[in-house]
Every structure is written in structure tokens, then in C-alpha cells.
Specification:
Layout: H1 6-13, H2 21-32, H3 38-46, H4 49-57, H5 63-73
Helix pairs in contact: 3-5
Length: 74
């Protein structure tokens, strides 16, 4: 299980051109942890309290909803 390093994320997001912190976080997980599948990304996000709040804000309650979000995001 991935444990999100929020200090590294803060550094990462300073160099991102995206406006949405959630999209920055997804890019960070892909880059820093080399997570590629939406299931792996959702697993990492859903096991962190802060990231879980970000998921809930977007009404993402399961991996299927996250996959749908990812198709819109990309």
C-alpha cells in the first residue's frame, strides 16, 4: 500500500501548471510512485484521509466512479 508523502507533494505541485490540486495529486502519484492503473491510483487515494476527502468532494465513492473520472480527466 502506498502512503502519500505530502511533503514531497507540496514540492511537486510548485512545478505543476495545473490549477486543480486533485489533478496535481494524481500526476504526483503517477510520477513519484509510478502508479499507472486507475485501480492502483484509487487504492492509494482511498487509503489516505486527506485524499479521501478530495474523492468525496468529487462524489467518487468507488473505483468505478474514479475510473469514470479519469476518462474525463485525460
Amino acid at each position: 500500500m502506498v502512503r502519500i508523502n505530502w511533503d514531497e507533494f507540496k514540492e511537486f505541485k510548485q512545478h505543476s501548471t495545473k490549477n486543480d490540486n486533485f489533478e496535481k495529486l494524481i500526476d504526483f502519484l503517477r510520477s513519484y510512485y509510478n502508479l499507472k492503473t486507475s485501480l492502483d491510483l484509487y487504492d492509494a487515494l482511498s487509503n489516505d484521509d486527506t485524499a479521501l476527502m478530495m474523492l468525496k468532494k468529487r462524489n467518487i465513492n468507488n473505483d468505478e466512479a474514479f475510473t469514470d473520472y479519469m476518462f474525463k480527466y485525460e
